[in-house]
């Protein structure tokens, strides 16, 4: 073996050991401590019951005002993880007593949460259907992923006995459990069984995956099973736990598969509706029930031009291109109002022209006002006394001088004229010549184009 091959082999071994240590979750596992900590956190009684009530109340307020910060604050104090981890632990170690205790406390947790949120949302002031609430009335694939990731993170961190890490992972679990429970209470409060059923279904799915995550990690870490003196009882418990685990696994897998299929269905339907909009059809934005995955139906609501049978056939053919070949298309449309739409468009154009005309007129008035202000300023700046002194020195034939501002119009435009009136001595033979020179001098002196000089 060459030196190069030896170095490569050593580098590979070092990398392999590093990766093993990097992702090894077995090292440092405290099995007895983890089991005890999970069992200690199962019970919902005393202070934990009140903490649960307060956290559910805070979360309900956060959902009612659509405040993520308030909901997150409630998650930090919510004692929701104990019973679910107890279920996962009991199935993993064949502990029937712990399973019974976990299920009882899980039921108590759900009951307290529903009653608290129900009482809050029974107040008419708090019965608005906010986006945060409606988002929890139907299971979403991302909620399941949060539950799985939270459950895995929590059980791994619990086996290391680090309280801060446990708290952070507990927040992830609360993310998957608290909003659905609050939404279920909201559905009960307003008598909407669809909301209640959807939220409880989401809670059930998330709870199942959290417990399943705990079961998988504890089995992987080889936590010791509970020993029974009666071998028949031990075998019965083992078979029961295995059966429950398999049922949970199969049910969860089926639910997860359906959520994936529903997500794909919604994505295809969105693409189809976007295609219709690009083709110029006036499609109203979708409502919550426009895509029915269970019945494999898509409802499209249009306005404007009516869709005839031939266009409907073309739409159905197009659906096959988007993977919706077995999907029923339901079209809702009113009477043909294309003429009304054209008239509305003409009204919009006329309105735009009128706005432009008014804008141009206002601009013209503004410019004229600015000119008037400028001329008024020039009038104020005319140094009349100084002019008379200079004119008397330069033109000895000038007898008197006066000026006035004149407003002139030709019925199209308005202008301001500065008029100077002069009187000359008859005894001065060059009075006409001096008048012309005076006139030129005055225009240059004042730098005014709109200047009129008269001789009396």
Q: Strand order of the main beta sheet, please? A: 1-2-3
Which structural class matches the secondary elements? mainly alpha
- Report the total helices: 15
Please, what is the average pLDDT? 76
Distance between the termini: 126 Å
DSSP strand content = 5-15%
Order of helices and strands: HHHHHHHHHHHEEHEHHEEHE
How many independent structural domains?
4
Q: What does the overall shape look like? A: elongated
| Rg of Cα set | 43 Å
Uncertain spans = 164-168
Major sheet characteristics = 3 strands, mixed
What does the secondary structure layout of this molecule look like, with pairings?
Blueprint: H1 3-22, H2 31-40, H3 47-64, H4 68-77, H5 81-92, H6 96-121, H7 131-134, H8 141-158, H9 163-190, H10 193-220, H11 231-278, E1 291-292, E2 297-302, H12 309-321, E3 328-333, H13 338-381, H14 384-394, E4 398-409, E5 414-424, H15 431-446, E6 451-455
Parallel strand pairs: 2-3, 5-6
Antiparallel strand pairs: 1-2, 4-5
Give a quick rundown of the structure.
The chain has 456 residues and is mainly alpha-helical.
Q: Would you give an account of this structure?
A:
The chain is mainly α. It is built from 15 helices and six strands. Helix 12 links the parallel strand 2 and strand 3. The protein is elongated, with a radius of gyration of 43 Å.
Highlighted features:
single chain, 456 residues, mainly alpha, 4 domains, 3-stranded mixed sheet, 15 helices, 6 strands, 67% helix, 9% strand
């Amino acid at each position: 073996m060459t030196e190069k091959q030896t170095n490569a082999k050593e580098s590979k071994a070092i990398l392999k050991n590093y990766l093993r240590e990097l992702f090894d979750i077995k090292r440092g596992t405290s099995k007895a401590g983890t089991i005890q900590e999970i069992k200690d956190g199962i019970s919902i009684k005393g202070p934990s019951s009140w903490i649960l009530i307060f956290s559910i109340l805070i979360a309900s307020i956060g959902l009612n005002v659509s405040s993520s910060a308030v909901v997150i604050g409630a998650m930090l104090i919510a004692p929701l993880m104990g019973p679910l981890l107890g279920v996962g632990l009991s199935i993993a170690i064949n502990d029937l007593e712990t399973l019974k205790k976990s299920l009882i406390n899980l039921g108590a947790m759900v009951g307290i949460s529903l009653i608290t949120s129900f009482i809050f949302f029974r107040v008419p002031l708090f019965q608005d259907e906010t986006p945060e609430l409606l988002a929890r009335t139907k299971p979403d694939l991302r909620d399941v992923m949060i539950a799985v990731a939270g459950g895995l993170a929590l059980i791994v961190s619990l086996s290391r006995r680090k309280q801060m890490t446990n708290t952070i992972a507990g927040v992830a679990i609360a993310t998957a459990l608290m909003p659905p429970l609050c939404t279920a209470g909201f559905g009960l409060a307003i008598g909407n069984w669809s909301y209640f059923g959807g939220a409880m279904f989401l809670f059930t799915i998330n709870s199942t995956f959290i417990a399943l995550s705990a079961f998988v990690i504890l089995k992987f870490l080889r936590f010791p099973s509970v020993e029974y003196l009666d071998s028949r009882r031990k075998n019965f418990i083992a078979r029961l736990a295995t059966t429950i685990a398999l049922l949970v696994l199969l049910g969860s897998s089926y639910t997860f598969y359906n959520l994936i299929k529903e997500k794909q269905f919604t994505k295809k339907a969105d693409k189809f509706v976007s295609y219709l909009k690009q083709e110029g059809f006036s499609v109203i934005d979708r409502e919550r029930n426009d895509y029915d995955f269970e019945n494999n139906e898509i409802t499209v609501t249009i306005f404007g031009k009516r869709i005839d049978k031939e266009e409907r056939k073309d739409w159905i053919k197009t659906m096959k291109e988007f993977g919706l070949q077995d999907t029923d298309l339901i079209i809702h449309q009113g009477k043909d109002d294309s003429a009304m739409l054209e008239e509305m468009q003409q009204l919009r154009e006329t309105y735009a022209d009128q706005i432009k005309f008014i804008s141009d007129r206002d601009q013209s008035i503004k410019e004229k006002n600015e000119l008037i202000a400028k001329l008024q300023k020039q009038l104020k700046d005319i140094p009349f006394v100084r002019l008379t002194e200079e004119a008397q020195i330069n033109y000895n034939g000038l007898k008197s001088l006066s000026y006035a501002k004149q407003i002139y119009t030709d019925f199209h435009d308005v202008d301001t004229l500065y008029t100077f009136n002069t009187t000359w001595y008859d005894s001065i033979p060059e009075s006409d010549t001096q008048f012309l020179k005076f006139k030129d001098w005055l225009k240059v002196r004042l730098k005014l184009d709109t200047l009129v000089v008269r001789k009396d």
